[in-house]
Amino acid sequence: MPLPWLLHPPAVLPLRVWLQEAESPSRHASHSLLSCSTNRFLCIWLWTCLLPARAEVHHAPVEQGRGAWKTAANVHTASAARITESKHLGPRRLIRRRIVHQVALNHHHVDALTVAPMIDLNYVPFPVHQIGCRTCDASPEISHTKKGSERWKRGLPPPPTLFTSLIISFGAAWTGHRFSIWFPCLSRLEAMQSLHFSYKKYRSRLPIPVLAIALVLLISLATPTSSCTEQEKTSLLQFLAGLSKDSGLAKSWKEEGTDCCKWQGITCNGNKAVTEISLPCRDLEGSIGLSLGNLTSLQHLNLSYNTLSGVLPLELVSSSSIIVLDVSFNHLSGDLHELPSSTPGQPLKVLNISSNLFTGQFTSTTWKGMENLAVLNASNNSFTGLIPSHFCNISPSFAVLELCYNQFSGRVPPGLGNCSMLRVFKAGQNNLSGALPDDIFNATSLEYLSLPSNELQAALDGSHITNLKNLTTLNLGGNNFSSSIPDSIGQLKRLQELHLDHNSMTGELPSTLSSCTDLITIDLKSNSFSGDLVKVNFSTLKNLRTLDLLYNTFTGTIPESIYSCTNLTALRLSGNKLHGQLSQKIVNLKSLTFLSIGGNNFTNVTNTLQILKRFRNLTTLLMGSSFMGESIPEDETIHGFHNLQFLSMANSSLCGTIPLWLSKLTTLQILDLSGNQLTGPIPAWINRLKFLFYLDISNNSFIGEIPKSLMQMQMLTSKNTAAHFDPGILELPVYQGQSLQYHGIRAFPTVLNLASNNLTGAIPQEIGQLKMLLSLNISHNNLFKQIPQSICNLTDLEVLDLSNNHLTGAIPVALNNLHFLSQFSVANNDLEGPIPTGGQFSTFSISSFEGNPKLCGSILFRSCGSTGALPVSTKQHNKKITFAIAFGVFFGAVIILLLLVCFLISTKGTASIRKDTSTATEDVGASRSNTEQPFVIVPQRKGEGSNFTFIDIVKATNKFDKENIIGCGGYGLVYKAELPDGSKLAIKKLNGEMCLMEREFTAEVDALSMAQHENLVPLWGYCIQGNSRFLIYSLMENGSLDDWLHNSDDDTSTSLDWLTRLRIAQGASRDLSYIHNVCKPHIVHRDIKSSNILLDKEFKAYVADFGLSRLILPNKTHVTTELVGTLGYIPPEYGQGWVATLRGDIYSFGVVLLELLTGLRPVPVLSTSKELVPWVLEMRSQGKQIEVLDPTLRGTGHEEQMLMMLEGASVAMINKVLKPLEWSGDTERVNSKIVWLKYEMEWQHDNT
């Protein structure tokens, strides 16, 4: 170590110190356990060694508070803990801690803050120290001192040396404590588990004898060091070689020398044996090699938060040395029942496999021999079957069982009452049913019982629940529990969180609830509780932070005892029958950030606002459906609400005008005044609310014109200032009715709703400035003049409702460029002219246009005459109608006569006509066209092919002979064409009656030709001959996927092998991603199926028929209803009146994946078998995934990949994934599955 490090230590050095007790003796004998930052700490110690000093270690008191859950990498799981504030559960209890250590050394202070889960049980002598992070420093530990100067320049500490560990070891020996200094990546506070134990407050004096320390240092300098064994080094390098992406780990290990004990993430003991591998959140990809099983001294393995795939090696689970194994948040798969029976005495104590893709059932053989297992977290996988109950019989020290977010079924298993050490049992979000077994209440050590979102029923057993004296969290929400809360609940003195929401519970709240003085959260929403809240003395609940009583039938007034809960941050009383006025005493709730009192019978809105304006921390105020019929206060003295972001006073029949004091709410983002009786003009100052992005003032009586200031709302005009409402400001979830097709995951979309008022004038041209707007509703007003063309600039619009006004003119054609538009209406106006075609207009129903007598178009069954004809006066229009009728009668008579002549001619069989070439062209509707007209070569293909004509195509298809038909679908026939030069093409003939007029058809094809992707069937050109339209494509030699899966013979030699099927899935998924996300305009395919996936001679997949829905009239689809798609591939929600969407394509693609896996058709032909999708989902729920695989694929060694694809396909089949999402607890769960599905659809070839 250079001398300057001894003489000039930095004055203030940040440092995270973990005080660790009860550690194994071999744990930290080597300096490699210390991260590079330790040397800053070392410098202070060395400097202090030269001075007479005493060091003080202060263990600051622990803050107490409420724990919560949070997502990790968009993957929601109950096992991912959001570490906010600590839970104090008493000595040796599972709690969340915040421990602050401050080391004061003379004038140098080192502050350390560590928020981390600890396992402080005798059965787990190991701190689960590594927590997840978004990004990790790729070089936190560089071992060579020659790099110290470079690191110091970058603000990093010098590399570790042997001095550090000697100093710490000596200090530990002196005080009787062990010190471990860790610097894990802390940017995302995601704990491996919510396993937290308390420490006693204490303060110790730490004398430092200078001579003794110096002596140890001198001895250490003379002591030769050894390195790890060659076998261990080889095993680590083999593991590294098995990674397809190491994110710089290989380079780092190479730079750190040949001693693997000095490598990043590697910890050795005093004998230089590798005891720990800690590589979380390193963005590693690939598989976990078998070589790690050769590390015979390995005790702790942490590979969490990476992208590792494949199976979990059996050698790791059955290792004779591993104590803690954490592979959570990866993409591992396989069945646990494939693991071998473990040998007796296996040391494994902590196993975390949460948030992976594991499937199958838990069997007794899986856990046999794990006599020391204490913690098992298998949350957020796809396990099925029954929950086993034999853990405690195998391992007496079993303490934590987490099985949330799986597909377990049946009853909660009896036998858990035998688990004398069981402290945590979580099995929420499964399919459990029945009543809770009586013996579960015999698990008297239980502290955390969480079974939400199942199908449990019956009443809470008041006589047995009192056995759970140590219970701190009881979560039974989202079930079918009935009856009332038992009085005996008051005996649960340590209860901190009570969640009984979304059940069918009745009765009054027991007064004994006030005896649970440690309560932090009470969530009883969506039940049928009744009675007066006054019976509960809330004043004893000093720690209460959340009280949620939404949607019950409580009566009376708000009990004043609630106002004594000074730590309350969220209070929701909405949807009850409370009455009276708000008390002045509510100001005692100074920490309140969320208040919802709507849906009651409260009075005196002015007094309420005068009181609440004093709350400086209040961000959400929901007062809707209360204070009925009162006047909204205009008192300018109502100012305050310094942090208010969400204000709702909707559906209260409030009178008056929009008050000026609202303009002072400068932080407001969401304002809902709908459903009142407000009058006057919309104030011009509305644009002063620079953060406002959601404004709903519908269903009032506003007058005047739409102010141009509304068109200047900063959050709606530019992406640079676009709103990103953080749901985190909501202490409780808020449910809002409007859901959007493409932006459903957002808690609140950007909205401007002015519907159902008395607004007049024209729609401002400036409306095109609101480019971030997702929903615009100005229906049911008195607006007139034309729809401004600028409205077509709102390219993100999903909802546009202009109905029930007096708008005139034509519907802007450019509206068909709004590719996200899923709800549209201009009904009941005075619009005229043709309805635009193409784009999303092909998905809108007749109700979107009715009530406009002068509109025309096929959807209204009214012809527009010549394309682009301008509207005419009523008189001229009537004359034309008269003329058209007369002409129609005459022309009809002529047609009948001609048909009669043709019939007579055909019966004579005139040979000359049959030989006439013109007759052949008449067969395709081109008798009056020039057959020498060349095909139009689309812009992307010009110069790439010869200039052939339509007659060339006629000859190449042998006059469109049926022998050359190679495909048939809803859009027309496909012919094989071979040109004289040997070129082979595919000609798709579209039925002229279905197609757009020539101008629109040409424009649409030109737009589609811009879509260029390696997995799209290349479009070479098109031709218009009379009423027919022709598209020319490259010919795919191997036909369609449907041919190979369903129309080939039974010879297995001609069937597709797995790798070919996987490549086909890859190619199709890449194309789907392209047309949905990259292609401009975005394209909804609407008919993804195996027959539309074509294969070239190399079996490369190409998606066909993309964008053809844009060329077809909306009432001419190939099914008998207004739906689109093919039977078996149509998403269920289409049958519920939904429009064609990108999500529908994903569903259809999921069906194709199932075809690849099973070899079966989506709908059986001439068979009574079940349809493919429900059959696969049923087999999957029963854990029989292997049985659905194509028999020709089984036994090929690729079952793991097949099951991975099956999991991704199954996610696409689940209806709730495809529905518009409200912001609720389930959204994060859905998010995680969508992320995994995206992963499945983006396989790379190196994963095969």
From TrEMBL:
<keyword id="KW-0677">Repeat</keyword>
<keyword id="KW-0418">Kinase</keyword>
<keyword id="KW-0433">Leucine-rich repeat</keyword>
<dbReference type="InterPro" id="IPR050647">
    <property type="entry name" value="Plant_LRR-RLKs"/>
</dbReference>
<keyword id="KW-1133">Transmembrane helix</keyword>
<dbReference type="InterPro" id="IPR003591">
    <property type="entry name" value="Leu-rich_rpt_typical-subtyp"/>
</dbReference>
<keyword id="KW-0067">ATP-binding</keyword>
<dbReference type="InterPro" id="IPR055414">
    <property type="entry name" value="LRR_R13L4/SHOC2-like"/>
</dbReference>
<feature type="transmembrane region" description="Helical">
    <location>
        <begin position="881"/>
        <end position="905"/>
    </location>
</feature>
<dbReference type="InterPro" id="IPR001611">
    <property type="entry name" value="Leu-rich_rpt"/>
</dbReference>
<dbReference type="GO" id="GO:0005886">
    <property type="term" value="C:plasma membrane"/>
</dbReference>
<keyword id="KW-0732">Signal</keyword>
<dbReference type="InterPro" id="IPR017441">
    <property type="entry name" value="Protein_kinase_ATP_BS"/>
</dbReference>
<dbReference type="InterPro" id="IPR032675">
    <property type="entry name" value="LRR_dom_sf"/>
</dbReference>
<keyword id="KW-0325">Glycoprotein</keyword>
<keyword id="KW-0472">Membrane</keyword>
<dbReference type="InterPro" id="IPR011009">
    <property type="entry name" value="Kinase-like_dom_sf"/>
</dbReference>
<feature type="binding site">
    <location>
        <position position="989"/>
    </location>
    <ligand>
        <name>ATP</name>
    </ligand>
</feature>
<dbReference type="Pfam" id="PF07714">
    <property type="entry name" value="PK_Tyr_Ser-Thr"/>
</dbReference>
<dbReference type="InterPro" id="IPR001245">
    <property type="entry name" value="Ser-Thr/Tyr_kinase_cat_dom"/>
</dbReference>
<keyword id="KW-0723">Serine/threonine-protein kinase</keyword>
<dbReference type="GO" id="GO:0033612">
    <property type="term" value="F:receptor serine/threonine kinase binding"/>
</dbReference>
<comment type="similarity">
    <text>Belongs to the protein kinase superfamily. Ser/Thr protein kinase family.</text>
</comment>
<dbReference type="InterPro" id="IPR013210">
    <property type="entry name" value="LRR_N_plant-typ"/>
</dbReference>
<dbReference type="GO" id="GO:0004674">
    <property type="term" value="F:protein serine/threonine kinase activity"/>
</dbReference>
<dbReference type="Pfam" id="PF23598">
    <property type="entry name" value="LRR_14"/>
</dbReference>
<keyword id="KW-1003">Cell membrane</keyword>
<dbReference type="Pfam" id="PF08263">
    <property type="entry name" value="LRRNT_2"/>
</dbReference>
<keyword id="KW-0812">Transmembrane</keyword>
<dbReference type="Pfam" id="PF00560">
    <property type="entry name" value="LRR_1"/>
</dbReference>
<keyword id="KW-0808">Transferase</keyword>
<keyword id="KW-0547">Nucleotide-binding</keyword>
<comment type="similarity">
    <text>Belongs to the RLP family.</text>
</comment>
<protein>
    <recommendedName>
        <fullName>non-specific serine/threonine protein kinase</fullName>
        <ecNumber>2.7.11.1</ecNumber>
    </recommendedName>
</protein>
<dbReference type="InterPro" id="IPR008271">
    <property type="entry name" value="Ser/Thr_kinase_AS"/>
</dbReference>
<feature type="domain" description="Protein kinase">
    <location>
        <begin position="960"/>
        <end position="1248"/>
    </location>
</feature>
<keyword id="KW-0675">Receptor</keyword>
<dbReference type="GO" id="GO:0005524">
    <property type="term" value="F:ATP binding"/>
</dbReference>
<dbReference type="InterPro" id="IPR000719">
    <property type="entry name" value="Prot_kinase_dom"/>
</dbReference>
